[in-house]
Write a structure and sequence with these properties.
It is found in: Membrane. This is Major facilitator superfamily (MFS) profile domain-containing protein. Belongs to the major facilitator superfamily. Phosphate:H(+) symporter (TC 2.A.1.9) family. Belongs to the major facilitator superfamily. Sugar transporter (TC 2.A.1.1) family. Helices cover 74% and strands 0% of the residues. The chain is an all-alpha fold and 524 residues long. Helix 6 runs antiparallel to helix 10, helix 15 runs antiparallel to helix 21 and helix 19 packs antiparallel against helix 23. The longest helix is centred in the last third of the chain and has 33 residues. The two termini are 42 Å apart. The chain has 25 helices and no strands.
């Protein structure tokens, strides 16, 4: 098979008249602060779990282990299920909240769902910052997880639906860009609060999550609802008014009629989750689920959650570990900006395939260095080798940040038809959070048992996912959302076989049966 047969980058959709209006830019920036909150939660946990006062108060067993290197190996210092639960509980809660968020996104709209997310975030932040015991800490993380579930459901949909087609990819990646900015912000805060005497720096780290939480809540109050959502809920005139406002032109009738038609089709669907399993919706479902699983098995969140802990494991001092995490966080932000500018020019497939090679090589190099230099009870990672490991991790992070990070969210949000879009986004977020939870709960134990082999484990998965992208992922750049079926799926060498209604399948079977002298009715 030739590689050229797997892409559809040459096909374009109908280009509706649309200006890049200030209200679109402002609305997308405000909505994308949901990513800022998510990123801060990802980044802050690894920093506070490497702070001695935090460990003394909530995880004394782990604290004692880190101070007594004779007890176990370098790789097992932080192997504690309770410590991992502090990080992973957020994602398990987010997984549960997503089911409710799917309903609110569809019935109450994208905007109100973002407002609910902001409220969950604020309450969770207060509980975390004021935590007096482990139970209070975990409950706070669970509420933050509920916020993550609602925000990750609503924000990518909001961004995809409000953005003009030609810059949809770039604006949607604002969500992932804010995730990376949130991680960097958390790393900087942790680096500063770790130096605070008195042992309360961790409270400040957890409490400053209130800043993006308030931004998201205020943003949800002031942004406009998407025309798709308004039309879907029967507010046709209001939807038309908003569409005219965000497109900056009076010539919105073609796009409006297409949205109305898509909404009519969507309303005929009474069971969107059941419809996801229909033959014609399976390609989108398979692609979306696979992207979420693969995104987590790149190993990125394991590294981002526990970057300070990972660097401390490799022999960096506490301050140096936090500083190294700041560097990787900064690389993450800058590389995501690359994606914002390139995704609608180069396309989704090229970014994913290039990044696969870059991540694979950097992971293998890291594994070789650690295998030679870092053993169970001795640390021979010199200053020079330490810097080289940080450079390799940055190389890996940069590749992820302009590919699997943003595109893992962008592609699912733009491929589902309106009738299954909320349900599809819900499944996407659920699968992502489920495997994020698995990685967060298992990484420190895997590090203890696999040691340097953990990087070989992830590199194996990167090879598999790059193979998947090359053969099975079609190009979606510059195609209007409502035309994906005709312009993308029906043109793909494999997925076009699924692009028929179940009723059509029956008709084909009957036709073939009669042609072969076989009458299905005669068998009844």
């Amino acid at each position: 098979m030739a590689g050229g047969g797997f892409s559809n980058s040459g096909h374009g959709g109908t280009h509706f008249e649309a200006k890049i209006t200030p209200i679109v830019i402002i609305s997308c920036i405000m909505a994308a602060t949901g990513g800022l909150m998510f990123g801060y939660d990802v980044g802050v946990s690894g920093g506070v779990t490497s702070m001695d006062p935090f460990l003394q108060k909530f995880f004394p067993t782990v604290y004692n282990r880190t101070k007594d290197p004779g007890l176990n190996s370098n790789y097992c210092k932080y192997d504690n299920q309770g410590l991992q639960l502090f990080t992973s509980s957020l994602y398990l809660a987010g997984l549960t909240a997503t089911f409710f968020a799917s309903y609110t996104t569809r019935k109450l709209g994208r905007r109100l769902t973002m407002l609910i997310a902001g409220c969950f975030f604020i309450v969770g932040v207060v509980l975390n910052a004021a935590a007096q015991n482990l139970a209070m800490l975990i409950i706070g993380r669970i509420l933050l997880g509920c916020g993550v579930g609602f925000a990750n459901q609503a924000v990518p949909l909001f961004l995809s639906e409000i953005a003009p087609t030609r810059i949809r990819g770039g604006l949607n990646i604002l969500f992932q860009l804010n995730v990376t900015i949130g991680i960097l912000f958390a790393n900087l805060v942790n680096y500063g609060t770790a130096k605070i005497s008195g042992g309360w720096g961790w409270r400040l780290s957890l409490g400053l999550a209130g800043f993006p939480a308030v931004l998201l809540t205020l943003g949800a109050l002031f942004v406009v609802e998407t025309p798709n959502s308004l039309i879907e809920r029967g507010h046709l005139e209001e939807g038309k008014k908003v569409l005219r406002k965000i497109r900056g032109t009076d010539n919105i009738e073609p796009e409006f009629l297409e949205l109305v038609e898509a909404s009519r089709v969507a309303k005929e669907v009474k069971h969107p989750f059941r419809n996801l399993l229909q033959r014609k919706n399976r390609p989108q479902l398979i692609i979306s689920v696979a992207l979420q699983i693969f995104q987590q098995f790149t190993g990125i969140n394991a590294i981002m959650f526990y970057a300070p802990v990972l660097f401390a494991t490799l022999g960096f001092g506490s301050s140096a570990a936090l500083y190294s995490a700041v560097i990787t966080g900064a690389v993450n932000v800058l590389s995501t900006i690359v994606s914002v500018y390139s995704v609608d020019k180069l396309g989704r497939r090229i970014l994913l395939l290039e990044a696969g090679v870059q991540m694979l090589l950097s992971q293998i190099i890291i594994a070789i260095i650690l295998g030679i230099k870092v053993t169970d009870h001795s640390d021979d990672l010199s200053h020079g080798w330490g810097i080289f490991v940080v450079v390799m991790i940055c190389t890996y992070v940069s590749a992820f940040a302009w590919s699997w990070g943003p595109l893992g969210w962008l592609i699912p949000s733009e491929t589902f038809p309106l009738e299954t879009r909320s349900a599809g986004q819900s499944v996407t977020v659920c699968v992502n959070l489920l495997f994020t939870f698995v990685m967060a709960q298992a990484f420190l134990s895997m590090l203890c048992h696999f040691k340097y082999g953990i990087f070989l484990f992830f590199s194996g998965w990167i090879f598999v996912m790059s193979f998947f992208v090359f053969f099975l992922l079609p190009e979606t750049k510059n195609v209007p959302i409502e035309e994906m079926t005709e312009k993308v799926w029906k043109q793909h060498w494999l997925w076009r076989r699924f692009m028929v209604d179940d009723d059509d399948d029956v008709d084909v079977v009957k036709k073939n049966g009669h042609a072969n002298g076989f009458d299905p009715a005669a068998q009844l």
